Amino acid sequence: PYTxxxxxxxxxxxxxxxxxxIDFCRRNGISITDGDNIEIVNAFISNTQGTMPMCGIDxxxxxxxxxxxxxxxxxxxxxxxxxxxxxIYLASLCGIEKKDIRITIKNHLDDSSDIGLNLIxxxxxxxxxxxxxxxxxxxxxxxxxxxxxxxxxxxNKWGTKVNFKNIEIQNSKEDIQKIKLNLxxxxxxxxx
Length: 192
What we know:
- It is built from 1 helix and 19 strands.
- An 8-stranded mixed sheet has the order 1-2-5-8-11-14-17-19.
- It has one helix at residues 176-184; strands at 5-6, 12-18, 21-23, 28-32, 35-41, 44-46, 55-59, 68-74, 77-79, 84-89, 99-106, 109-111, 115-120, 133-140, 143-145, 149-153, 161-165, 168-170, 189-191.
């Protein structure tokens, strides 16, 4: 039983989207900028184009006050999006407050988006002003095919663990073993 609650701080809580079909959006199919307990199940998001970032789903907090907790993307299909099928961009979450992040992406299929999954942890170095993150991002049973780049991941110096399990890539232009080696050389990234 999910209900939509908008907290006084502007974040969303207890949101469930089921069986969405989203096509030809100008910016993103779905943007998650601040939320706790968000579940998106069986979504089909395609042909996003027009103005950046042009992703199927964009998890991108606006500032350090945002919450990105218990975000679940299950059985998501993204197709032919101009940038990424799914983008996780955490740079704006950097700041004074230490953040605990929980994201699970299970059974994501991307076909023909420019990038299957783009994971950008953040540009600023952790220091007294910019606290590191805790928590984890689990990416389970992804399948990326016909992408220019299947997976793009920046070096994660923030403390959030990123776990990949059962990666499947169908792209004749990319060396799957090289991709897995590159991912496993990232800080706090684990491949099973």
